[in-house]
Design a protein that fits this description.
The complex is a heterotrimer.
Chain A: H1 6-28, H2 33-37, H3 41-51, H4 53-71, H5 79-99, H6 105-132, H7 139-148, H8 151-170
Chain B: H1 15-18, H2 21-37, H3 41-58, H4 62-65, H5 67-71, H6 73-86, E1 92-96, E2 99-102, H7 103-129, H8 132-142, H9 153-183, H10 193-198, H11 201-224, H12 243-262
Antiparallel strand pairs in B: 1-2
Helix pairs in contact in B: 2-7, 2-12, 3-7, 6-7, 8-9, 9-11
Chain C: E1 3-13, E2 19-30, E3 35-39, H1 46-53, E4 61-66, E5 69-70, H2 78-84, E6 85-88, H3 101-106, H4 116-129, H5 134-137, H6 147-159, E7 165-169, H7 177-192, E8 196-200, H8 204-210, E9 213-218, E10 221-227, H9 228-237, H10 247-257, H11 270-281
Parallel strand pairs in C: 3-8, 3-9, 6-7, 7-8
Antiparallel strand pairs in C: 1-2, 1-4, 4-5, 9-10
Helix pairs in contact in C: 4-6
Classes of the chains: A mainly alpha, B mainly alpha, C alpha/beta.
Chain lengths: ~180, ~260, ~290
């Protein structure tokens, strides 16, 4: 696997942050697209997978922040827990993709994504319970807000993120992980 | 045409517009703490009064200042209901299966919603009186101490400013791609969820491809110009804080102390 | 008539909140089977006009009719419009997304209700029309193709629905001269088989050579329209505004200005120029 320069990693992170602002707006016109499918997660997950944990972490923190500054969504009150959640996704994606090497691109991606999606929700739940809404946060509320309401988003991310990674490799915009396989 | 995004910013010359962005961000966090710390009716009266004064000082129309609250009002209702139905209070008024409506739950729901609304308006005042570029520059400045624990703050600042510059371009491209796929007959309203998720592919894949192509072009250009890292950039002159900035900080700190120690 | 635009205006709001009028009170008709060109400087509203004609934006004033029906009326079936009106945007290769060329081209037929066999036959036809060997290309990734191939695949993905009206927005931008000529020949063929063609271009030669009617936009207004030759002749007279002359017209002007040779002012294309020069050599000219 050839590595990308740190400049390129930085710029890819920058555009992923930009897409955190743009994708929810592009989904906006689609009925319930924004709320149901959490499109902002896609660039963060991708950034972690492609650039590594530190860039993924930054993307998860900066993406929602810039989105709030520019579009007002998510509202400032939801920003901190959302930043924690997305930062965890980016970070865990980056760590997992380093650890999981099954020699199969899609297997690597699915395992990393699922671990990240779960870990991010656990981290966000703990953060809510301890910091943002101490005392009032229950397990039932956690399950409702992070699984029941977002499972369409989980499916969307599991369908789209691997497809985008594969497409970027085909278009030679990022190096292939298993060049011989193709 | 492609100017930097101005976001929520509404141009003006009010007291709030003129404060330093760093001070505004600090004040926002201090006042947010004051809102969360409010535990009595008097406490809420205090933060409400402060907020009313801030809206007055900002010279923004009231309609603008409270706009985000209206936008998510149905969501606030959901929070209220979730708290009311799931909060494990003692004094249960009624219960259906896993739902338990309790007096404590209703009270808790109102509290959470009030907190959210107040912080929402506070944040809105910040973003409506401050340009996104000012906010990111202020965050860079406030993040300086992080350098001592190994965070490359210059690199982060570079990434943020590139991201800001890219947003209008990416937005335009996303719009064009959406139109092109719509013209080809793309539909985004399929009933089946997996189908619907797949229907986003024609939209999302090209958006990422064109964005990554731009990233490639820019990083090649930067490397060709000998860019290595952000360390050697010319630094913007730091503006010193004015007297009004210091007094704003003092007043906010005072309000926060008042909240925590005098109105428990 | 294929398309009728009636008093159409379009304005949008920018970041800062000020309103920009992209199109101001435009009216024209395009007959079925015609080959119409649209020209005008950058920012004159050409692309907006294309988007309005394809029903991708609704006008802020006026009406757009396709085959006599108001496409923005309530209850109008937009999805049938998508089958009837094909749009090839600038850099269409940016809309490729699927894992294989075949799937990408077939995307436009997803809701057409055609059987799988018919879909494959259509995809084959579209790719072969664009000069591909269907069996060779069908399973390749569209994203791994060369730039020119990508564009041809993308166009195949638009013509696959066999639209009655085909709109091109700057289709030859970024093509080499050979690719340009091939492409224009293909468009001409589509037109000869009955497809109404609308082509936005900066390329005066292409417009003069291939279109039958011309619309000229300037700052969101329709400043001229009519048969291509007449419009070019008029544009030459206009002192201000759109600077639009074909190279042949410019050669005629230069020859006349130099006092060397006065040729007919009706010359628009190279073919005109060539025949005028031949006539001149044969001694039949006015000089």
């Amino acid at each position: 696997m050839t590595k990308m320069s740190s400049v390129k990693l930085s710029i890819i992170t920058a555009i992923c942050i930009g897409l955190c602002v743009v994708l929810p707006m592009a989904f906006h016109a689609i009925p319930n697209g924004g709320i149901l499918f959490s499109p902002m997660h896609i660039p963060v997950l991708l950034c972690g997978l492609i650039c590594g944990w530190s860039y993924g972490l930054l993307c998860g923190l900066a993406g929602p922040l810039l989105s709030t500054l520019i579009t007002g969504m998510p509202p400032v009150a939801y920003l901190p827990p959302m930043m924690v959640e997305l930062a965890a996704y980016g970070l865990v994606c980056g760590v997992m993709i380093k650890l999981v090497r099954t020699k199969k691109l899609y297997a690597d991606l699915y395992i990393s994504l699922m671990v990240a999606l779960l870990a991010g929700r656990i981290v966000a739940g703990i953060a809510r319970a301890l910091i943002f809404a101490p005392g009032s946060y229950t397990l039932a509320a956690w399950t409702t807000s992070y699984f029941v309401m977002t499972w369409p988003g989980i499916i969307l991310q599991l369908v789209i993120v691997p497809a985008v990674v594969a497409a970027l490799m085909k278009a030679k915009l990022i190096p292939e992980w298993y060049p011989a396989q193709d | 045409m492609r100017s930097l995004p101005t976001g929520q910013y509404i141009p003006g010359h009010s007291l709030l517009h003129q404060l330093d962005a760093r001070v505004k961000i600090l004040c926002f966090f201090i006042l947010m703490a004051a809102v969360i710390g409010a535990s009595s009716l008097w406490g809420y009266a205090l933060v409400l009064a402060v907020l009313a004064l801030l809206i007055l000082f900002s010279r923004l129309p009231l309609r603008c200042a409270v706009a985000p609250v209206r936008r998510i009002s149905w969501f606030l209702l959901v929070i209220l209901l979730m708290n009311a139905l799931f909060f494990g209070g003692e004094d249960v008024l009624a219960s259906w299966g896993i739902f338990r409506l309790s007096y404590g739950g209703i009270k808790q729901g109102f509290r959470v919603v009030t907190n959210v609304v107040l912080i929402l308006i506070l944040g809105n005042l910040l973003t409506m009186t401050t340009l996104p570029t000012q906010v990111t520059a202020a965050l860079e400045s406030l993040g300086k101490p992080l350098k001592f624990i190994g965070v490359p703050t210059e690199e982060v600042a570079m990434i943020l400013s590139v991201a800001l510059q890219f947003i209008p371009i990416l937005m335009e491209e996303a719009e064009l791609i959406k139109m092109a796929q719509t013209a080809r007959g793309a539909r985004f309203e399929s009933r089946k969820l997996s189908e619907r998720a797949a229907s986003f592919l024609p939209l999302v894949v090209p958006i990422f491809i064109s964005a990554f192509r731009r990233a490639e072009e820019l990083s090649l250009a930067m490397e060709a110009r000998g860019y290595r890292n952000a360390k050697n950039r010319t630094k913007r002159e730091k503006e010193p804080l004015a007297a009004s900035d210091y007094s704003a900080l003092t007043v906010c700190a005072f309000i926060c102390l008042l909240q925590f120690f005098l109105l428990p | 008539m294929a398309i009728k635009i009636e008093n159409v205006s379009y304005s949008y709001r920018q970041y800062a909140g000020e309103t920009v009028e992209a199109l101001k009170n435009i009216s024209f008709t395009i007959e079925t089977g015609d080959f119409t060109g649209i020209m005008g400087p950058t920012g004159s509203g050409k692309t907006t006009l294309v988007q309005l004609m394809a029903g991708l934006r609704a006008p802020t004033g006026g009406r757009v009719y396709v085959n006599g029906e108001d496409i923005n009326a309530k209850g109008y079936d937009k999805s049938s419009l998508r089958q009837r009106v094909g749009v090839v945007f600038q850099y269409p290769e940016y809309q490729l997304f699927a894992a294989t060329v075949e799937k990408d081209v077939a995307f436009g037929l997803k809701y057409s209700g055609l059987s799988r066999r018919k879909v494959t036959a259509r995809v084959r036809w579209a790719l072969e029309t664009m000069g591909f060997d269907f069996e060779k290309i069908r399973d390749q990734s569209p994203l791994a193709l060369s730039g020119g191939e990508k564009r041809r695949v993308a166009i195949a993905g638009v013509i696959v629905t066999k639209p009655q009206i085909l709109i091109f927005d700057e289709p030859i931008a970024g093509l080499d001269p050979c690719g340009r000529e091939n492409f224009l020949q293909f468009v001409k063929q589509m037109n000869q088989t009955g497809t109404t063609i609308i082509m936005v271009s900066h390329n005066m030669e292409a417009l003069a050579e291939y279109t039958r009617h011309l619309l000229v936009l300037e700052k969101g207004r329709l400043v001229d329209s009519g048969p291509t030759r007449e419009v070019f002749a008029r544009l030459k007279q206009r002192k201000t505004g759109v600077l639009a002359q074909t190279k042949a017209q410019r050669i005629v002007t230069l020859l006349a200005a130099g006092g060397k040779l006065a040729l007919s002012p009706a010359i628009v294309t190279y073919d005109d120029l060539l025949s005028a020069l031949k006539q001149e050599l044969a001694g039949g000219g006015r000089g």
